[in-house]
């Protein structure tokens, strides 16, 4: 409310001052030194060419000149909430606030889309601090906006218009980058807190279930002279379940202590095959390995990569209730090494595919629901991507894409679908 009233007053002042200036110019035809005569209608902003001439004139004088560039596009959440016409009026409104506060000391013009250039003659350290404080404090209080800006002053930052504007723009861009980096940190922190909250809630739920079971058995045993022998095995199963859950949770939540080495992916796959082949055969399944590029090397933590593939193969085996086949394929696709783990199991329902990587989500009667979440985290730690395709009743394919060494991150944002 206060902002709207203040802006309305400023706009009215600009209209009046523009009309008075126009009438005075018609009678006076000669510009007063230091005050350019040509302004935009209604906005009261000096025309760009006139601003240049005015600034050049100030620089010919011995007094220091202060230049400020202000980006009116750099706003807080108001930028998303305000309609486009409101944002389009922001430069005029902010220029009005500056003009009212600094009267004839400031000459203001547009400097590109949504930007203002301001020049102050006879400026010193006190003037600079006054302008900075006004932009940071007063405008933010009145409008709720966070602006990025840059200053330059003669002769320290240059002695020509071009030098001063370039320096001010450089400082403004640096400040904008700093603002966005701080926002990213805040967003990332909020996201981490949200995830921690979800994990804590899930962990509490998962631990409460076995504790409730144990409590029930102990209450029953009370009427039996505290003889827990009939329920001993079930109590121990619930305790083991809690122990497994906490171990998995620690593996998932603790900071990654990864130790990367340049190594062929083939060696990790061979290790996984040696660890799972006997169990796969015992259950009547086949384990097939297809390697079109066995020499592919990547930067990896071998133990983590083995854990990743063990989890996927374990899930594949558990999904096959009849004799089936697990196929591991190694290939190269663009700038990525790709590992596929394919099974002929029951598949995953389409409405579950988006949830399988969420912590504690499981469709099985046993397990912690953290296995695929751990897989997802390992792939992220390697800068890669994990995808899943599933055909209900026919099987599931997990595809892991890991960046090849020496490939800039900007060149591996997309994973080609065709193999080389």
UniProtKB/TrEMBL annotation:
<feature type="domain" description="GGDEF">
    <location>
        <begin position="63"/>
        <end position="190"/>
    </location>
</feature>
<feature type="domain" description="Histidine kinase">
    <location>
        <begin position="202"/>
        <end position="406"/>
    </location>
</feature>
<keyword id="KW-0067">ATP-binding</keyword>
<dbReference type="InterPro" id="IPR036890">
    <property type="entry name" value="HATPase_C_sf"/>
</dbReference>
<dbReference type="InterPro" id="IPR004358">
    <property type="entry name" value="Sig_transdc_His_kin-like_C"/>
</dbReference>
<keyword id="KW-0597">Phosphoprotein</keyword>
<dbReference type="InterPro" id="IPR029787">
    <property type="entry name" value="Nucleotide_cyclase"/>
</dbReference>
<keyword id="KW-0547">Nucleotide-binding</keyword>
<dbReference type="GO" id="GO:0005886">
    <property type="term" value="C:plasma membrane"/>
</dbReference>
<dbReference type="InterPro" id="IPR000160">
    <property type="entry name" value="GGDEF_dom"/>
</dbReference>
<keyword id="KW-0902">Two-component regulatory system</keyword>
<dbReference type="InterPro" id="IPR043128">
    <property type="entry name" value="Rev_trsase/Diguanyl_cyclase"/>
</dbReference>
<dbReference type="InterPro" id="IPR003661">
    <property type="entry name" value="HisK_dim/P_dom"/>
</dbReference>
<protein>
    <recommendedName>
        <fullName>histidine kinase</fullName>
        <ecNumber>2.7.13.3</ecNumber>
    </recommendedName>
</protein>
<keyword id="KW-0808">Transferase</keyword>
<dbReference type="Pfam" id="PF00512">
    <property type="entry name" value="HisKA"/>
</dbReference>
<dbReference type="GO" id="GO:0005524">
    <property type="term" value="F:ATP binding"/>
</dbReference>
<dbReference type="InterPro" id="IPR003594">
    <property type="entry name" value="HATPase_dom"/>
</dbReference>
<dbReference type="GO" id="GO:0000155">
    <property type="term" value="F:phosphorelay sensor kinase activity"/>
</dbReference>
<dbReference type="Pfam" id="PF02518">
    <property type="entry name" value="HATPase_c"/>
</dbReference>
<dbReference type="InterPro" id="IPR036097">
    <property type="entry name" value="HisK_dim/P_sf"/>
</dbReference>
<dbReference type="InterPro" id="IPR005467">
    <property type="entry name" value="His_kinase_dom"/>
</dbReference>
<keyword id="KW-0418">Kinase</keyword>
